[in-house]
Design brief:
The protein has 23 helices and 11 strands. With 560 residues, the protein is an alpha/beta fold. The chain is globular. Bound molecules: 6-O-phosphono-beta-D-fructofuranose. 6-O-phosphono-beta-D-fructofuranose (F6P) binds next to loops.
Length: 560
C-alpha cells in the first residue's frame, strides 16, 4: 500500500497557493464569472443530483484536488479495497463491505467469500419471510409481532437509521424497537410495551463481547424467562448476528439461530451483512435487496468513474479542501427529510470512528488535520435552532443538504414547503444580504433613518457559506442504498488522502477498560470493592484513580 504524506505532494503545495487567490473571491463572484456554473459543478447518478456549485471551487481547484488524489495513489487504494487486500493493516483484515452487495463478484480470490455471503443472504431471506408471513411461531404458538434489536454502534445505528428512513415500506404487522444504550430506562420502557410470547430479540454484536449489548441481552433474556419459564423456548425468541459463534452459543442462542458475519466487515459498515436482518424482517427481503442493489450501483460508479466525475471522490476532496486549507473544524449534514433524522448520527459514527485518527499509516504523528467533526439535524427544525450561527456566526461550516423531489406520502403542499426551505437556505447561505440590500429593505418598511442605522449591522448577512445539495427523486430503498454507499466511499477517499487507517477504532478501547474497572468497583464484584477505594482514599493512596475521579466517586457514594 502506498503511504504518502499528502502535505509533501506537489498538488498540496499548489493547493495552498491556489487557496490564497480563491479565498479572496466570494461565491457570488464565482457565479458571476461562469454562467454555466451549475452544470459545470453538478453530477448526476441514477436519480440523484449532486449540486456542488455553491462551494469555493473553480475548475482549477477541482483539477488540483484530483491531482492530489492521483499523487497519493487513490486509484490503487480503490482497487485494493474492492479486491480484498488487507488494507486494515492494524487488524490485519481486508475491508469488504462492498462484496456484501455485489451479486456477481468477478474475482477468483473472492469466490469463497462470495458464496458464503450468498448463503447468509438466503438464510436471511427465508427467516425474514417466515417472520413476516407469521410462520415463525413463538412458544405459545403466536406469530412474532415485535422485533427488538439489541446492539450498539454499527450494530444499531445502521439498521435503526434504515428502518426509520424506510418505515413507509414496512408492514403494519411487525413493530421494531432498537435498544443500544446501557441506560436501564431504555430497555425497561421498551419491554413495558411488549409481551414475551410475540417478541423476537435480535442480539447484534460482531464481537459478542460489547458490554452494553451483553447487559441488555441478559436483561431481555431474564425478562423473557420470567414469563416463559422454560429455557428451551429461548430458541424461538432469540437470534444473534455475530462473528463470535461460540460466545453466542454460551449466551444460550441456538446454533441454527446464529447469522454469521466476517472479520472483513467493519461494524460501522455492517448493515449490508447479517446485521441488516432486522431491516429485512421489518421491510421485507425484497426491499432490503433493493437497498443492496442501490449500494452496489454506487460502488460501481465509485470504482469506475473518472475522479472529476466521481461523486464520492468529489465530496471527499471538497471536505479535505475545507478541512485542510480553509481550517473548517466541522461539517454539517441537514436532511430535509424527517425520515432521515438518524442519518447524521449514523454518519457521525461512520466518519468520526473511521477518520478520527492522528497517527499516519507509517505510525507517525500527523502534522495536519484529519477527520472533521460531523453533526446535523433535519430541516426545517435546524433553521429554528442553530442555523443562526451558520448564517451570522464566526465559524465556517460547510453543509450538505439532502431533499427528495417527491414525497412518498403526506400532503404535497407540505413537501413543497420543505423543498422551498431547503433551496432557500442554500441560497441565503451563499448570497447573504449586503448592507445596501438591507438598507433598501428597511427603507420600504417605513422605519426612521435613525432606527435603520441602529439595526442595520445586525441585519446584514455576509453570505459566502458553502453548501452542497443532494436532490433525489424519492427516498426509495435503492436510492437510500446508493446514498449511504456514496457517503461510505467519501470517508474512504478522505482516509486515503490523509494517509490514515480508516478501518480500525483503537480509540474506543481505553474508555471501555476504565469503565469496566469502575463498574467492578461500584458493584463490589472485583478486587476494587467500595471498601477498598474508601480505605485507599482514607489512607491518602491516590494510585487507583486521579483526584477528580476519586472526588466523583466519593460524591457518588455520599448520594447513595
Ligand atoms: O466501541 C466501538 C465499536 O467497536 C464499534 O466499532 C462497533 O460498531 C460497536 O462497538 C459495536 O461492536 P459489536 O458489534 O462488536 O458489539
Amino acid at each position: 500500500m502506498r503511504k504518502v504524506n499528502p502535505t509533501k505532494t506537489k498538488s498540496w503545495v499548489k493547493l495552498k497557493e491556489h487557496y490564497q487567490s480563491i479565498s479572496q473571491l466570494a461565491l457570488r463572484d464565482l457565479f458571476a464569472r461562469d454562467a454555466h456554473r451549475f452544470s459545470n459543478f453538478s453530477l448526476r447518478f441514477n436519480n440523484i443530483l449532486i449540486d456542488y456549485s455553491k462551494n469555493f471551487c473553480e475548475q482549477k481547484t477541482i483539477g488540483l484536488l484530483v491531482s492530489l488524489a492521483q499523487e497519493i495513489g487513490l486509484g490503487e487504494l480503490i482497487d485494493d479495497l474492492f479486491q480484498g487486500q488487507k488494507i486494515n493493516e492494524t487488524e490485519e483484515r481486508a475491508v469488504l463491505h462492498t462484496a456484501l452487495r455485489n451479486k456477481r463478484i468477478n474475482n477468483q480470490n473472492l469466490n469463497v467469500i462470495h458464496q458464503e455471503i450468498q448463503v447468509v443472504l438466503e438464510r436471511m431471506r427465508v427467516f425474514s419471510e417466515k417472520i413476516r408471513n407469521g410462520f415463525w411461531l413463538g412458544y405459545s404458538n403466536q406469530p412474532i409481532k415485535n422485533i427488538v434489536n439489541i446492539g450498539i454502534g454499527g450494530s444499531d445505528l445502521g439498521p435503526a437509521m434504515v428502518a426509520e428512513a424506510l418505515k413507509f415500506y414496512a408492514s403494519d404487522r411487525i413493530n421494531i424497537y432498537f435498544i443500544s444504550n446501557v441506560d436501564g430506562e431504555v430497555i425497561a420502557n421498551t419491554l413495558d410495551k411488549l409481551t414475551p410470547d410475540t417478541t423476537l430479540f435480535m442480539i447484534s454484536s460482531k464481537s459478542f463481547s460489547t458490554a452494553e449489548t451483553l447487559m441488555n441481552a441478559g436483561t431481555a433474556k431474564k425478562w423473557f424467562l420470567r414469563v416463559a419459564k422454560n429455557e428451551s423456548y429461548v430458541s424461538k425468541h432469540f437470534v444473534a448476528m455475530t462473528s463470535n459463534q461460540q460466545k453466542a452459543i454460551e449466551f444460550g442462542i441456538a446454533r441454527e439461530n446464529i447469522y454469521p458475519l466476517w472479520d472483513f466487515v467493519g461494524g460501522r459498515f455492517s448493515l449490508w451483512s447479517a446485521v441488516g436482518l432486522p431491516i429485512a424482517c421489518y421491510l421485507g427481503f425484497e426491499y432490503y435487496a433493493q437497498l443492496l442493489q442501490g449500494a452496489f450501483e454506487a460502488d460501481e460508479h465509485f470504482r469506475t468513474a473518472a475522479f472529476d466525475r466521481n461523486i464520492p471522490v468529489i465530496l471527499g476532496l471538497l471536505g479535505i479542501w475545507y478541512n485542510n486549507f480553509y481550517g473548517a473544524e466541522t461539517e454539517a449534514i441537514f436532511p430535509y427529510d424527517q425520515s432521515l433524522h438518524r442519518l447524521p448520527a449514523y454518519l457521525q459514527q461512520a466518519s468520526m470512528e473511521s477518520n478520527g485518527k492522528s497517527v499516519d499509516r507509517s505510525g507517525n504523528q500527523v502534522s495536519y488535520q484529519t477527520g472533521a467533526i460531523l453533526w446535523g439535524e433535519p430541516g426545517t427544525n435546524g433553521q429554528h435552532a442553530f442555523f443562526q450561527l451558520i448564517h451570522q456566526g464566526t465559524k465556517l461550516i460547510p453543509s450538505t443538504f439532502l431533499v427528495a423531489a417527491k414525497p412518498r406520502c403526506g400532503d404535497s403542499v407540505h413537501h413543497k414547503a420543505l423543498v422551498s426551505n431547503c433551496f432557500a437556505q442554500t441560497q441565503a447561505l451563499m448570497n447573504g444580504r449586503t448592507k445596501e440590500e438591507v438598507y433598501e429593505h428597511l427603507k420600504v418598511s417605513g422605519l426612521s433613518k435613525e432606527r435603520i442605522e441602529k439595526i442595520l449591522p445586525f441585519k446584514v448577512f455576509s453570505g459566502n457559506k458553502p453548501t452542497t445539495t443532494i436532490l433525489y427523486d424519492q427516498l426509495t430503498p435503492k436510492c437510500l442504498g446508493s446514498l449511504i454507499a456514496m457517503f461510505e466511499h467519501k470517508i474512504f477517499v478522505q482516509g486515503a488522502v490523509w494517509n490514515i487507517f480508516s478501518f480500525d477504532q483503537w480509540g474506543v478501547e481505553l474508555g471501555k477498560q476504565l469503565a469496566d474497572n469502575i463498574f467492578q468497583e461500584l458493584t463490589g464484584s472485583g478486587k476494587k470493592k467500595k471498601a477498598c477505594i474508601e480505605d485507599k482514599i482514607g489512607q491518602g493512596d491516590r494510585s487507583c484513580y486521579d483526584t477528580s475521579t476519586q472526588g466523583l466517586l466519593a460524591a457518588y457514594y455520599q448520594y447513595l
